[in-house]
Amino acid sequence: MTASLLPRAPRVGSRPAVLSPMAVLAVAMAGSLLFLAVAGPVIWGSAAERLDLSAVLQGPSAAHPVGTDNLGRDLFARVLTATRLSLVLALAATLLGAVAGVVFGSLTAVVGGRSRRLLGSLVNLLLAFPGLLVAMFFAVLFGAGAVGAVLALAIGSIPGFARLTQTLAARVADTDFMAAARVLGLRRHRLLWRHVLPNIAEPLLLNTTISAGSALVALSGLSFLGLGVQAPGYDWGQLLSQGLDRIYAEPLPAIAPGLAIVYAALTFQLLGEVLAQAAARRHGGLPRVPGQTARPASPVPPATDDHVLEVEDLTVAIATPDGVSHPVRGISLALRPGEIVGLVGESGSGKSLTALALADLLPEQARAAWRTNRLLGTDVDTMTPGARDRQLATGLAMVFQNPASALNPSLRIGTQLTEAARTHLGLSRSDALAQARLTLTRVALPSPDRLLRSRPHQLSGGQRQRVMIATGLMTRPRLIIADEPTTALDVRVQRQIVELLRGIRREAATAVLFISHDVALVADLCDRVLVMYGGLIVECLPAAHLATDARHPYTRALVESAPDLSADRDRPLRTIDGLPPDPLSPGPGCPFQPRCTNRQARCAEEHPPLSDLGVGHRVACWHPMPPAAPHIKAALT
């Protein structure tokens, strides 16, 4: 892949897009409010405070366009001067409520299931009370005054912000890039700050800006009722209350502050719409932090034998409304350093759930159990939670099927590459970036500096998948679990990824668990093949013998369904009739027997164990098939 295929980074100082009419209007209105807030007290402050007992309660005139109050003060100057206090109080209440609500709501994306349910119930309880009613209650509790009104409105707005953030964060919590971040063992505050909040910033920005307009109206209402700003201070709400006493004789003293409230609220509404459309996610850049030193890393227990991974009797149970489902039912596997083992099977056979269980990434409702689980020679059950997280984060790397969803769209590639190394290896930012450049070069990606500044959407599918692999290599793992990493790629890029995995195996003796439904690709890449069906391993054999010596009827059917360029094009490919077994109610016999053309009575009554057929070859079948015919070998060569 040449450098010319890489996307160009956006140039600083490029010509901005032409603003829409609504954007121009919103900017003009916001600019006018900002001008009045800054310059209003300076220009009209003295006129707003000047007493003139000879001009008490006068109507509109050339000298006083809106009239005067009961002390002869100019109401037009007071309305303009009140802009600063009205806006400051509204923004303060909004920001306080937004910060508290966003933090409260986004915690549901990074805490455990029980805490998530508890926080969700609390949000639902708070939303049962109208926000304005809550604000009035706390305004009375805190006492009349500007500070009490601001705090009361902030408290009243927290549930609304929390519910919106909870809803938005729920969409992020189940994404592949959050799963990848959990594999890295990032702490909750880093998950929250780097992976959750940047991806929900735009709707939150819109809601916060619009809420500022609502807070302005609510604060004016509290001042109108005597619970907000107190004399000698004044805001638009207090001026509206004073003008209401004479509205039938002189309506303009009441209309003027009301129009100011409407104008400011409308400005915030328009500004929110414009900012939400134009906001660019800037989080996740690569600022330089000089002088940052590395933290000493906690030692990882050394391996005690020659296996990178040993799992015996792994089961996964998922609670459903219809009962407990068992999509993975007691599988065992082991990988040695430098070995590539393929895991193949139909969709729904349990391959991906097995990978997620090994990486401790199962969904909330799923539970994994095993008799033995040794990672890098250490029993996972004997490790503390912190040591286990670190072992998984540094010793194991996950490569997901869809790199577009596994990479965080709001973060630059450099940030995502260096997170694990900085978190677990104690590298400084500069050292982590230097290692990231070397790793990108290692996975055959040219121009690493340009890539580090890019975001995932600026890369091609093959580049994103290479970046995913590079992210895993940053911690020098001894095991890579690649869950269908070539499914969405074209044949040329697929071949590049396969060669890359081979190169990684040669260079660092890294073990690879390669999960795929493509038996031809697995036969070409892997050393051994595990065939999975109905949550069970039904056959294990050397990859070189897959075409000629597959003995289980299911494995044979998978091999025969592989496309063969020499086959008769007028004949359809071999398919497997029937459906996979129901994981809610598996039968007592062989799980494949309802679809097997070679079944006998015993197959429906007894479950066949994995039995040895030769060196490195085991099959779970009461009646193994004979070796394949020569023409079947051509399908995989």
Q: Which CATH-level-2 architecture of the largest domain?
A: 3-Layer(aba) Sandwich
Helix content: 40-55%
Strand content: 5-15%
Question: What is the CATH topology assignment of the largest domain?
Answer: Rossmann fold
Provide the gyration radius in Å: 33 Å
Shape: elongated
Low-confidence stretches: 1-18, 280-304, 631-635
Main location: membrane
Transmembrane segments: 21-44, 85-111, 123-156, 204-231, 251-272
InterPro entries: AAA+_ATPase, ABC_Ni/Peptide_Import, ABC_transporter-like_ATP-bd, ABC_transporter-like_CS, MetI-like, MetI-like_sf, Oligopep_ABC_C, P-loop_NTPase
Keywords: ATP-binding, Cell inner membrane, Cell membrane, Membrane, Nucleotide-binding, Translocase, Transmembrane, Transmembrane helix, Transport
